[in-house]
Amino acid sequence: MLMSAFRSGEPMNIVIALLAAAFLVFCVIPLHEFAHAWAADKQGDDTPRLAGRLTLNPIAHVDPIGGIMIALIGFGWGKPTPVDPRQFKNQRWGEVLVAAAGPAINLLMGFLFLLIETVFLHIGAINGSILQVAVATFFQYAATISIFLAVLNLLPIPMFDGWHILEGFLPNGSKAKEWVWRNQRMLMIAIVILLFSGVLSYPVQFLSQFVLHFFGWLTALPFGG
């Protein structure tokens, strides 16, 4: 999405895309990590609180390299939220809830961004104005990246929240769990290669576009869309 803005050569699109990326780095990703911390705290784990992560202050959650990656390629990360599953009230389902909290807040933000975009597109008083186009484009970009990050994080593979969700449904002592943890480093390297080669990005983009269009349809319903 960011690269397409640069390829368009339109200064306004480039500025808006960069602003949207900065908004996600300092707002959406911190909310993602805060959601993990909040869910862990509710499950009885005070590790995030003691680490200073139970806060909406973006500085506590922003990873400099991950933030730069979002600005450059639209894919990045925040500082991982430290948790101790041994302190969860229910270790098995507690981990599922904590892992799901991050992608869930990203999906919610994506939906809200599209709703704001739709509202601005239906304000007759500013119809066709630069303000209307700029605001709508900003929230379209923000929604696209937010939903992309949610879908990416829901992949049931190591390195992402989706794997921790899947773990909750696997029986204790599962051979799949043991094999993944034994080969975690190798798998993480392979996943990074697949992401940067585009092999993994295409299915994630396809699923992201499906969610984006579905949310767009839902937000348009109140306006007769």
Question: How are the elements arranged and paired?
Answer:
Elements (H helix, E strand, L loop, with lengths): L1 H7 L2 H32 L4 H4 L13 H10 L17 H31 L8 H24 L7 H7 L7 H8 L1 H14 L3 H20 L5
Helix pairs in contact: 1-2, 2-4, 2-5, 2-6, 5-6, 5-7, 5-10, 6-10
Q: How would you describe this protein?
A:
The protein is mostly helical. The chain has one domain. Helices cover 70% and strands 0% of the residues. It is built from ten helices and no strands. The two termini are 25 Å apart. The mean pLDDT is 85.
Brief overview, please?
This protein has helices at 2-8, 11-42, 47-50, 64-73, 91-121, 130-153, 161-167, 175-182, 184-197, 201-220.
The dominant shape is: globular
**H/I helix tally:** 10
Q: Which structural class matches the secondary elements?
A: mainly alpha
- Summed up, the domain count is 1
Strand fraction: under 5%
Regarding quaternary structure, what we see is single chain
Largest sheet: none
How do the SSEs run, as a string of H and E?
HHHHHHHHHH
Distance between the first and last residues' Cα: 25 Å
> Which residues sit in consecutive blocks of at least 5 with pLDDT less than 50?
none
Please give the share of residues in helix: 55-70%
Compute the CA-based radius of gyration. Answer: 19 Å
Question: What is the mean predicted local confidence, pLDDT?
Answer: 85
How many strands in all? 0
